[in-house]
Amino acid sequence: MALPQAMTERRRRFAMAEIGETRRAGDRTRLAVLAIALLVAGSAFSMLLSVTTGASDAAILDVIGNIAGFEPALSVRDRIIIVDIRLPRTILGFLIGASLAVSGTVMQGLFRNPLADPGLVGVSSGASLGAVAMIVLGSGLAAPLQALLGIYALPAAAFRHGQTSVATMLLAGIALGALTLALTGLLIYMANDQQLRDLTFWSMGSLAGATWTKIAAAGPIILLSFTALPFMARGLNAITLGEAAAFHMGIPVQRLKNIAIVGVAAASGASVAVSGGIGFVGIVVPHILRMAIGPDHRFLLPAAALLGGSLLIFADVLARTLVAPAELPIGIITAAVGGPFFLWILLRQRSRLAL
What we know:
Helices cover about 80% and strands about 0% of the residues. It has 14 helices and no strands. The two termini are about 45 Å apart.
């Protein structure tokens, strides 16, 4: 009688443990859904704040009142400020912040490392070289160089004989990063004083040059990359257990890596090309969200897009109001916040290893 009773007790414990895990999973799901809803509201608030804030007194409320018939017609100056300056800047800032945060989330999931970001594999350096060449050489002479070492150079170097690995991507990124750094240095040496000032400001990142033309150029690339996110979440969840385990779970690991690296190259490369170097968004945002809602990429990827876009818009608002009517490069703001947070991540990882 003792053996059947022991088996019954074991089954009961397993059932209770399964019920407890199901409840915890449900709680995490509800928390993630609530967080995404809050992030949607926060994104709307950040965009409204961006459009209504600036050195000029033109406000979006005037536009809304004018449309509703409560306010007099806007002046030409106010219409230009809102429609042609602030609105494209807000939209482009949200797209860039979302693309950098999502790219960082994908890279961290693919490399299984919370310190990974798109710059780790040379994507940013390739796009930077194209932009520097455009400033120094002009569009005609820069086109061949940009075509040779643009945002798609990394996928071309990493995918050999239909196979790729994390080590291959890292080595390709290091090699391309070194080559593009050398060519960028040569172009800087060739630049004149005006070009050097442009390069210095561009390298620190800014949304000051945002236009509808830039949105039309970078927006479709970023949005097209986002269409692959729903198909990557399950695979990224599985690959956290290792590539072999993910393969045995039915995940097409090679296809997942191909889609991930091409999507990251396209989205982050387009972002760097139109805004310059904006650091730490791809590291800080995914790490904050993993601590808040867990590692499930079904919720992590859309939450990263919302939080990344919102944070970059808030950083841009600070950049153009702290020293108004002048403007700080947005890269200074993100580095001032992201640098200490990055050091905190390193110290936290070190303390975990010590334990």
